[in-house]
Design brief:
Length: 499
């Protein structure tokens, strides 16, 4: 979020992971798409379908987005490919933001305060000017900030009224829209479902009013995705055989379908319909970042070799050591560190440390066995403050204790904030050893099974109280990353668009 005033700075520190919905993830509420969603300060390439002329037409151009604490401004300059249609649109929105620090939620309300829109059509019938004379729009979005992801949902309703050449007719659009989205370190997706009911009002040769009706459905999806892709090193006489590249790419997609009248003063012709559909998209060039190549001497051929290499490449695992120890038990302190680094939760802690470094405040004990001098202090502090890892009794963290499968699964589901997907107790999971699952882990294991993060063994056991090995922990965190990259996108895009 752009830090304009001290109040905004304070809110940004509290809600670091909260996306700025109206800016970061869309270009207004018109059903269009734009390129390079992450850059909020520059003019963007933009596409939008125009329907109010009765002939669906793709307009392309730019949108400029300006943001302040209490105001959003969108300036559009668009035209058709053949140059026969041009549009200018200027929209000002009032922003009202209500942050609830206790529940880590934010409500944003946007209302139209100023508008101007002019569409000029030059075709064989002469010149027509569509002027927006009335525009009402009310939008509200709520975001829920969980430890590693922010989820949000919103909706809007609006009405636009245009005059044609001042006296030759009117077009009225009634608009409803819904927004569903999430944002986290590994990606973000927002899906908009928009419906427009359009009324075309003209006169026949006897000056009698004619009303014709049509409707449009638009699905817009904004996506940001980080991926790890393996590359081979082709030379034979070299010190490594390959490695990973971290890529990040933005994609926006607009799918639309329409049923519109064929505009005519002839009553028979006015009953015919123009039906069609289409799709438009933008993609950015993926960024490229080579990941470090670990040279562990004890993982070649191990079933989790590539999981270990991926995390070491990301520097989640220390890849400078000669040995990894894949069959050693995972320690609680190491898992806390891996989770924080894999989800980029340490960034927030480091920013806070830099802000408070001038005061040189003494670090308080986190637990009875975690003092301010503990080497992994900042990682344990992060998981404690975000309430994804807690102590083991007597105010102890047991950093060198073995991590159980039940603990690992619970940490991940708490980080996602998905405990609500489990039924109210008492209930049973599908695992044969359900009676061995600790009560505090029951909901997390049920949800992890439902969303595909933890499936248990092939013979139907989850082994909740067994220690997790380092190899298993590496595979588990990679499965968590894949879930964030792929599964969440399916649920927030394909499942909604096809609903």
């Amino acid at each position: 979020m752009k830090k304009i005033l001290s109040l905004v700075i304070i809110l940004a520190l509290v809600f670091t992971a909260m996306p700025n919905y109206a800016i970061l993830n869309n270009a207004g509420f018109e059903g269009g798409i734009h390129k390079n969603e992450r850059n909020t300060q520059k003019t963007k390439e933009y596409k939008e379908m125009l329907f109010i002329t009765g002939t669906p037409t793709l307009l392309q151009g730019t949108v400029e987005i300006k943001e302040s604490e209490k105001k959003l401004t969108y300036n559009y300059k668009l035209s058709s490919k053949d140059g026969k249609i041009s549009m200018t649109r200027n929209i000002d929105l009032e922003r009202i933001i209500d942050d609830n620090t206790y529940h880590r939620q934010r409500v944003e309300v946007n209302n139209i305060t100023k508008f101007k829109e002019t569409i000029t059509v030059n075709d064989e019938d002469g010149k027509k000017t569509y002027a927006l004379t009335n525009y009402l729009l009310h939008n509200s979005t709520i975001g829920d900030n969980q430890p590693v992801a922010t989820y949000y949902q919103g909706g809007w309703g609006g009405s636009k009224e245009y005059t044609i050449n001042k006296t030759e007719g009117k077009v009225i659009e009634e608009i409803t829209g819904d927004i569903y989205g999430y944002d986290h370190y590994w990606g973000g997706t927002e899906t908009q479902k928009i419906h427009k009911d359009i009324t075309f009002i003209t006169e026949d040769e006897n000056y009698k009013e004619i009303k014709q009706y049509g409707y449009v459905d638009i699905d817009v999806s904004f996506n940001r995705t980080k991926k790890m892709e393996y590359f081979d090193n082709l030379p034979y006489q070299t010190s490594f055989d390959g490695g990973y590249t971290l890529t990040e790419q933005d994609e926006t997609v607009m799918k639309y379908s329409y049923t519109l009248p064929i505009l005519s003063s002839n009553k028979a012709a006015s009953n015919r319909k123009n039906i069609g559909s289409g799709i438009e998209r933008f993609e950015t060039l993926p960024t490229q970042q080579k990941l470090f190549i670990p040279k562990f001497e004890d993982i070649k051929g191990n079933w989790a070799e590539w999981d270990i290499k991926r995390l070491a490449g990301l520097q989640v695992i220390d890849g400078t050591q000669r040995y990894f120890g894949p069959n050693l038990n995972m320690k609680r302190t190491d898992f806390a560190k891996w989770i924080v680094l894999a989800m980029d939760l340490a960034g927030e802690e480091e920013q806070t440390s830099r802000r408070t470094s001038r005061t040189q405040e003494e670090k308080p004990n986190l637990f009875a066995d975690i003092s301010g001098e503990y080497p992994d202090y900042k990682y344990i502090k992060a998981v404690k403050e975000k309430e994804i890892m807690s102590g083991v009794g007597d105010n102890k963290f047991a950093p060198e204790g073995n991590l159980t499968r039940a603990e690992a699964i619970t940490i991940v589901i708490r980080a996602l904030g998905l405990e609500r997907l489990a039924p109210n107790p008492p209930f049973r999971t599908r695992f044969i050893d359900d009676n061995q699952i600790p009560l505090w882990a029951k909901k997390a294991i049920y949800v992890a099974d439902q969303v595909g993060i933890a499936k248990g063994s092939t013979d139907g056991y989850i082994h909740p109280n067994e220690p997790m090995t380092k190899a298993e922990a590496a595979a588990f965190i990679n499965r968590f990353i894949t879930y964030l990259q792929e599964n969440m996108k399916i649920d927030h895009r394909e499942n909604i668009i096809n609903y």
